[in-house]
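Good morning C.,

I know you're traveling, so I'll keep this short. The sequence:
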Amino acid sequence: MIRTSLVVTKTEFRRTIRAVSSERSKLLMLALLAVFMFGSIIVAGGYLLPRLGEQVADGVTSSEAAMAIELATGGTAVAWLFLTFMAAIRAFTAAGSVDEPAFLLTSSSLRSVVVGVVGAEILLFAVWVFPPALVLSAAFAFGAGTILPVALAVIVVLLALLTAIPVGFVLGIWVRHLVTVYEPIAQYRLLVFVGFWVLYFGAIATGRFNLVLDQLFVALQDSPLGWAGHLLLLAVPNVDASSTSALAAVVGAVALSGVALAVGVASARRHWFADPARFEDTPEQRQKESQSSSRLEAVLARAISLPTRTVTVTAVRRTKRAPIRLAYVGYPLFGALVFAQEIFQTGTVPAHVAVFLSLYVVWAAGALFTLNPLGDLGRGLPAVVASPLTGKQAITGLVVAGSLVAAPLALLVSLSLGLISPLSLEQTAALVAATTLGAVVTPALATGIGTGFPRFGSVKVTNSREAVMPSKLAFIVYSIAVILPTVAALVLYVDAPELLAEILVVVSAWTPGPELAVSARGVEIAAWTVLVIGLIAPVVSALFAREQFDWYTLE
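The tokens, ready to paste straight into the viewer:
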């Protein structure tokens, strides 16, 4: 059993590392996360902890010792909950689904597979947790003049991993079972998924998350989750940690780890050998969808030809059936969390937030259906290219689909934001007009960029779902093509060329090299140039997309 578990651990760990290292974008994101999250902590801790170690070694008061105990016990408890939460997410998204289950689950015992998978997860988390723990404990040990903090920090981290990861595995695999196997919940798993992340990020944006952490930090100090803090403090001079609690932490960790693994085996048996929930459209659902498509076709029949409206209806219907294809459209909203917190704290929508969110709607209008016209056809590309459908009909149909969906939303969102923000009625009217017009023209702008930088292969949206998404280069070029004219229009609307020229001169003076002589007139000419090019670009882009579609050849 041990040998088989080690082989599974080695294989799963190597497979995960290979999957991450083979994708440069994912590797870059992890590197940035490590630099910004752990880098700042290590730098700050490496500077402050040696001094703190010296002060503790010289002696502390009873109140300071009590504070150290509270910080250690509450901190270890909250850190354990965080590790468990992250392990549950990993089990839900990745570890709860083994690779090649038909082979692995028939050639090895279930217990060996579960132990091996959990062992691989422990190794993956250890790669992230141990380096900062070693650096911080070594910094404190250097100031305190003893090596014990490093040894005990390693033991505490090891105990945390050996308990939090198995518990997280159990939680994650049961949540995965509910949303993939249990039909009453699995039928609405997309809503469950969206609702969870809305609540999670909403709690962060409104500050509720910090409030909950503060309450847990205090409430768990005297609980079994905080006992490991006493074990950590045994190496700190002049602090009377409870040796009984420290011993109980070790014994409890061993017991909890064993129980969690046993429950994990039973949970994996229930989930891995269960048939996933399957749903078929009922006749009523098919009839309802057909009626909806017929109504849309009837509306479009008054203005556009049959081939064009067929493309429009197909694009809308395809997205309605598989909304996971549009997951990338929501990525920029993660940056709006800062604005959400500002709105919650002030009780109003600042003017710049209203402009930013309206700009996002304009950007999303082009990203919905038209940022990858050729790649979105998938396996049907050869048949569509060989059909009598012309580039004009195909591109116009996609542009109409994007405009029909985005324009009403742009009107509603910009009007609501303008009315609840400090913007005047004149500024609100300008915001509504610009947002609605932008939502109509950006689908045309995206067509040429998408055909110029297509992506035909699918990418992983989650560990179990794949979808064809626009290429990274198309995203970048399209975003620049939307943002630059918008900035130029704002500069001209608020009459800011002179202010912008002064800022550029100051920035130029701070940077090495020759200073730039920027005039307000030059900034104004540049803004008008960018704006005019931005207004012409959608027409040119759509014409280019038509030509690319008509002359596209299969390799």
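Safe travels,
E.
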